[in-house]
């Protein structure tokens, strides 16, 4: 199942908030948080709710915008930003946002931009490193800890020696441990041996 | 870079880990404001060698070239390396093992036994490594100095596995950081961790001196003989 995406809209115009909400609520994996109409409590709200995506009208940011936005971003570092615009916004401010929605664009174009931003979040999440050993890596680790060579492990598990070496590399990367003796300690402390 | 006119106290102020070298070089404390040249004169030590070791230990430089090796007074080299080995095996490792035992004691019987076995294995690696040097390499070097015949196969065979010596320290540190039960005694853990880090960097400098002073010196002596 795909992860639910929490979206916070911060926009002064009620009618635009309504419009965006109606557009986004068609997607079952998007969840809309209670919108904000000004930015006074934006940072606190972001910190508490940890939204995945913030649709923000840049004119709400107080000067200097860059610092204000940085503070908001810091409150939820992995949150993605989308600017919502329909007035003139300084290009330097607009450039702080990886994605921009112009309200005057077509309905499906607006939805597509939100989808792109969400896609970025999902790609980023899958790029985050997973330090858990896989079942296969655990098996290999136990055999290394028992003192078997890569060749013996390959024979035992019916895999190529190249695959064993890839597992070894991943095990070292994930645990930070290189020596056989060190891996044996890891195995014992994790009740694998 | 330290030179002959640098006061020894200033050198140590600049790099406090040099205090570890003083006993290995045979220098006692209480040298007042003497320069390193004056201290060496007092103790009858070769100034160029002492300066080289102190500089290498502090900055990793200068790595002597062939000419530098040929012109150095190396009479202190083997005694210095032997004293370093003694310091590691007789002082540092037992000291660290005591802290490890204290950590293991509180981390549960199984964990304690596992850590102890790891450390015993590590001590054995180091003992084997030092034994090879003390029983084969140092006597060979000394025989070359006295004009003995060159056996290049021996020194070439002597593959230096200093990385291995530091690899297990790094592994143990990772285990301590990540996998030791959280109720392990913090003070003992800290002592152990900082002690291991210090030993690792000491080994690194030690390896530098063996790889860039001792081995080139052996190669120089071999060429001189042939």
Please name the defining characteristics of this protein:
heterodimer, A: 193 residues, alpha/beta, Rossmann fold, Arc Repressor Mutant, subunit A, 5-stranded parallel sheet, 9 helices, B: 226 residues, mainly alpha, 2 domains, 0% strand, globular
Beta fraction of chain A: 5-15%
What general outline of chain A do the C-alpha atoms trace? elongated
Query: Total domains of chain B, how many?
Result: 2
Q: Which CATH class of the largest domain in chain A applies here?
A: Alpha Beta
- The tally of beta strands of chain A, per DSSP, is 5
Task: Output the CATH homologous superfamily of the largest domain in chain A.
Answer: Response regulator
Major pleated sheet of chain A: 5 strands, parallel
Helix content of chain A: 40-55%
- Got a strand count of chain B? 0
Query: What would the average pLDDT of chain B be, to the nearest integer?
Result: 91
In N-to-C order, the SSE pattern of chain A is EHEHEHEHEHHHHH
Report on this model:
The complex is a heterodimer of chains A (193) and B (226). Chain A folds into 2 domains: 5-127, Response regulator (Rossmann fold); 135-189, Arc Repressor Mutant, subunit A (Orthogonal Bundle), CATH 1.10.10. In chain A, α2 runs parallel beside α3, α6 (135-145) crosses α9 (180-189) and α7 (150-157) packs across α8 (161-175). Chain A contains 9 helices and 5 strands, in the order βαβαβαβαβααααα. In chain A, α1 links the parallel β1 and β2 (30-32). Helix content of chain A is 51%, strand content 12%. Chain B has 2 domains: 8-62, no CATH class; 74-225. Classes of the chains: A alpha/beta (193), B mainly alpha (226). The A-B interface holds A 175-179, 181-182, 184-186, 188-190 and B 110-111, 114-115, 118, 121-122, 164, 167-168, 170-172, 174-175, 178-180.
């Amino acid at each position: 199942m795909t992860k639910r995406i929490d979206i916070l809209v911060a926009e002064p115009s009620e009618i635009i908030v309504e419009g965006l909400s109606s557009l986004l609520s068609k997607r079952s994996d998007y969840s809309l948080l209670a919108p904000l109409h000004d930015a006074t409590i934006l940072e606190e709200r972001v910190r508490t709710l940890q939204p995945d995506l913030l649709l923000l009208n840049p004119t709400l940011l107080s000067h200097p915008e860059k610092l204000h936005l940085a503070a908001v971003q810091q409150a939820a570092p992995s949150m993605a930003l989308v600017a919502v615009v329909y007035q003139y916004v300084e290009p330097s401010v607009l450039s702080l946002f990886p994605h921009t929605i112009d309200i005057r664009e077509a309905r499906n174009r607006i939805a597509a931009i939100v989808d792109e931003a969400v896609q970025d979040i999902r790609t980023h999440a899958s790029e985050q490193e997973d330090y858990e050993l896989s079942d296969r890596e655990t098996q290999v680790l136990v055999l290394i800890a028992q003192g078997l060579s890569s060749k013996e492990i390959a024979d035992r598990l019916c895999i190529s020696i190249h695959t064993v070496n890839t597992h070894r590399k991943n095990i070292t990367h994930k645990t930070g441990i290189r020596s056989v003796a060190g891996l044996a300690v890891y195995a014992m402390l994790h009740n694998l041996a | 870079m330290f030179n002959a006119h640098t006061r020894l106290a200033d050198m140590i102020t600049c790099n406090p880990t040099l205090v570890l070298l003083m006993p290995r070089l045979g220098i006692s404390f209480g040298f007042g404001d003497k320069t390193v040249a004056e201290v060496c004169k007092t103790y009858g030590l070769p100034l160029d060698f002492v300066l080289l070791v102190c500089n290498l230990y502090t900055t990793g430089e200068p790595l002597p070239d062939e000419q530098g090796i040929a012109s150095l007074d190396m009479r202190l080299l083997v005694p210095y390396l032997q004293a370093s080995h003694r310091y590691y095996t007789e002082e540092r490792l037992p000291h660290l093992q005591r802290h490890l035992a204290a950590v293991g004691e509180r981390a549960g019987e199984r964990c304690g036994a596992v850590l102890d076995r790891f450390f015993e294995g590590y001590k054995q690696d180091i003992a084997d490594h030092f034994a090879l040097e003390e029983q084969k390499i140092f006597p060979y070097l000394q025989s070359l100095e006295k004009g003995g015949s060159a056996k290049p196969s021996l020194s070439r065979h002597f593959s230096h596995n200093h990385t291995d010596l530091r690899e297990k320290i790094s592994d143990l540190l990772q285990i301590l950081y990540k996998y030791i039960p959280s109720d392990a005694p913090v003070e003992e853990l800290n002592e152990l961790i900082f002690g291991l880090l210090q030993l690792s960097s000491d080994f690194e400098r030690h390896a530098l001196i063996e790889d860039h002073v001792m081995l080139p010196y052996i190669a120089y002596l071999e060429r001189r003989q042939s």
